[in-house]
Amino acid sequence: xxxxxxxxxxxxxxxxxxxxxxxxxxxxxxxxxxxxxxxxxxxxxxxxxxxxxxxxxxxxxxxxxxxxxxxxxxxxxxxxxxxxxxxxxxxxxxxxxxxxxxxxxxxxxxxxxxxxxxxxxxxxxxxxxxxxxxxxxxxxxxxxxxxxxxxx
Length: 152
Prior knowledge:
The protein has helices spanning 7-12, 17-28, and strands spanning 39-45, 48-54, 63-68, 71-76, 97-102, 107-115, 118-125. With 152 residues, it is mainly β. It has 2 domains: 1-35, no CATH class; 36-128, Immunoglobulin-like (Sandwich).
């Protein structure tokens, strides 16, 4: 595990605590445990994104999508299967999982859908009016005529 000293970041900036925590989380994550289930993150528009998670073998009732602490959490718990079934080969993993996706500020979850073994989560970036660029009008002030100083 890598550890970075964040003190220089805190001395020169304000409000970047969340970004520093996110960097720590990414650098300390165990990549071997995060390979299941496979997923895609795509940009579908200027301010629209979609997370697609491959959830073959799971019904919509087995899945939960939750928004908590600035992250989308996708979890699956498979209901008990018939013990009468006997597999010669079992290649479709239906083990329980929990996958977290950290969201940036102003990202809103628009909805989720389950179709053809894929769970799609649609996201929208909604930038508040106060943060959008805006044009500032420049007042035109007529120059005042110079008055010659009178020596009295």
